[in-house]
Amino acid sequence: MSNKEEMDDSSLVASKITIDFNRVLNRFLKYWYIFIISIFIVVIFSIIKNRYSVSTYPVTASIVFKESKESKGESFIYNNSLVSGVRNYLNETYIIKSFPLIERTLREINFGISFFVEGNVLTTEVYNLPIECVIINDNENATASFKFKMINSNQYELSTSGDGKQLKDVTLFHFKDTITYHGLSLLFAPKPLRDHSSETDVTYLVNYTSPSLLAPIYAARLSAAWAEVNAGIMNLSIEGNNPEKEIDFLTGLILNYQNYDLDKKNQTAIRTSKFIMSQLASISDSLHKIEAKLELFKTKNIKSTMGSEVAYLSAKIDPLEGINSELGLREIYFNYLTDYLNRNENYDQIILPTSTGITDGLLNSLMSRLIDLQLLLKMNDKPDNPLVVQSKKNITEIKKEILESVKNLRSTDKIRKSYVNDQISLLDTKLNKIPLVERELISIKRNYSLLENQYIFLLQKQAEANISKASTASDISVVNPPMISGGPRSSSSINYYLAAFIGLILPALFFVVIEFLNDKVQSREDIEKITNIPFIGGVGHKNSKNNIDVLTSPKSGIAESFRALRSNLSYFLGTHEKAVFMITSSISGEGKSFSSVNLASIFALSGKKTLIVGADMRKPKIFSDFSLSNNFGLSNYLAGISDFDSLIQKTFHESLDVISAGQVPPNPSELLMSDRMRLFMDEARNRYDYVIIDTPPIAIVTDALGIIKFVDHTLFVVRQNYTKKILLKSIDDLYVKGLIKKVSIVMNDIHMTGIGYETGYGYGYESGGNKNGYGYYTE
């Protein structure tokens, strides 16, 4: 494809997608009533929507987190002597909106069951009825729907909806009896101290949705945000149709959140207590054995006493043995911690170092961070959650740091233990010089003292754990209890504004789409955008059924438009007093025959001798407008059958003659290109002032191209809102290539209004039973 053809194609595409906003605006003004009707209809729908819409109420609450002095506004610490971790407050908004916490809340406040009253149009929820339904057992992800009606204070019935308003599967039950219905284990009971008389014979629709299915819905509706940057106050809010129900939800959620925080703290004390009890049991057995051994030794050696030197050495060894005892307990915890981290993934159950007296700040901080991350993972069960993915990565890194920290602490303890053992060995060397009985007594007492110190230390930690468990309180307290934070939020006014906007935009969008999708020529501007062919004039819409408006109504608007066309043609002809015009179009139905007849008529009315030649030998019809014959015509002359004079037919106007197309020949294109055609045109020029040649559509057949060389000017007819732009582009290609010269465009069937051109379709005349006289080869 050549560059020129590519440019032509691109320009055609551009012509297709161009929107004439002036024309669109004209349609807006002409069809203003459509906008009024559209607004009216949409507003009616809006009124109906507002009539049956339910208002929503905003419910808010605020909670505060107890802040440690060390946090400096960036974190919060548990008030527990056994916990040295720091609360990562950035996680709290995720935890309070976690599915497990919300699901537990929904189960506790029995939100799985909802009662509704069915109206003719709207079904509304009824909350806090004097009757409650308790779910004893259900299937996860279960849903159910059925009807409930209270018969009397002792009985009720359950049923399901049948066809229409009929009920089916109606079953009678007694209150406070556990029943199984639709796969659910239920218990209906009247609430104490409530009046139930008004509920008798009232039918409610009961819907059950498992809290596991409701949890994501409530999590999406719940909003949790910090009041300010670095503030310890969290604001909670939720919107719903029933404010009392939303208040109960926030109240239950906050209570569960406090219990979760308290349970997390108590778990530390509980796990610590279990660990210490297991160690105490082991040490207690050993201590009893040493006590028995000491009593037996004293019984056998009643007179044995320790001298001053022995007492001095023993006093030196006792604190060293205490250090050894402490190091031994630390080693036991390090072994437990290493083994736990290598075998388990439930890190929130791990025992903290402080429970065994290990006060290393780095290790305690790492352990607290590990527990916080593990709890966060439990509260977010979506594996693709970015927070979960990052938390898992952090846990892996923290585990490595903990194991490295334990390794370093063990190395330090090994150095301490080596030093202590060296000191004890020196003292033991001195003790070896004293009598055997005294040495045995010192050895027994040393073992007893070592176990006793460990036992006392563990008893102290056990007491601390129990005290911590008894005195632990949640760091979360309520600042503002759940309450309605404003009036009902209705979208009524917004709906009206939206309706007015939609009522305006829909017709406007409709007109714009019509303009965008319309691929037909509608105005002079369209012609000038597509083609370089000059625009010579336009002819208005005709309402008469005949095709010779100029002759029958010489003062009509149609006649005036052809007079203007005649005047404009003079600019192309110059000083020539005679001329031959060819009138063609792209396809049939565009009005070329109508234009040929009336242009010839306007010349005849001016006193010019005018001839109309029907060169459309494939579909002759010019003769019918003047009620003439088509037995002989142009085809007969070109075939050499008839002479020029025998073809001329007079019309009722003395200056206007017609030569019809004649009988349909088998080779019209060859006849029009023959030498006989040249002779015909020379004869016509000699006899007439103006010759108007009506040709076949140029986009369908090529007959007209053979006549162009005989004419002075070609008029190409396009019909408003009928001729396709792509067809107009095809004639422009012929013009650009030089196949058609001295051509101009006439727009036909223009519908005029007070604001400019407008589209129209009512154009045509009777022809063979077809209302549209422009159909080509239409049977």
Description:
With 779 residues, the chain is an alpha+beta fold. The protein has 21 helices and 24 strands. Helix 7 runs antiparallel to helix 11 (436-471). The protein is elongated. 30% of the residues are buried.
List the helices and strands and how they pair.
Blueprint: H1 3-17, H2 21-30, H3 32-52, E1 57-65, E2 76-77, E3 86-87, H4 92-96, H5 99-108, E4 113-118, E5 123-126, E6 131-137, E7 143-150, E8 155-161, E9 167-174, E10 178-181, E11 184-190, E12 203-209, H6 211-221, E13 223-226, E14 233-240, H7 243-300, H8 308-343, H9 361-379, H10 386-431, H11 436-471, E15 476-484, H12 492-517, H13 524-530, E16 535-540, H14 549-552, H15 557-573, E17 579-585, H16 592-605, E18 610-614, H17 622-625, H18 634-638, E19 649-650, E20 656-659, H19 668-672, H20 675-687, E21 690-694, E22 713-719, H21 725-736, E23 743-753, E24 756-758
Parallel strand pairs: 16-23, 17-21, 17-22, 18-20, 18-21, 22-23
Antiparallel strand pairs: 1-14, 1-15, 2-3, 4-5, 4-12, 6-11, 7-8, 7-12, 8-9, 10-11, 13-14, 19-20, 23-24
Helix pairs in contact: 1-21, 2-12, 3-12, 5-6, 5-7, 7-11, 8-10, 8-11, 9-10, 15-16
Gist of the model:
The protein has 779 residues and is an alpha+beta fold. It starts with a helix and ends in a 21-residue tail after the last strand.
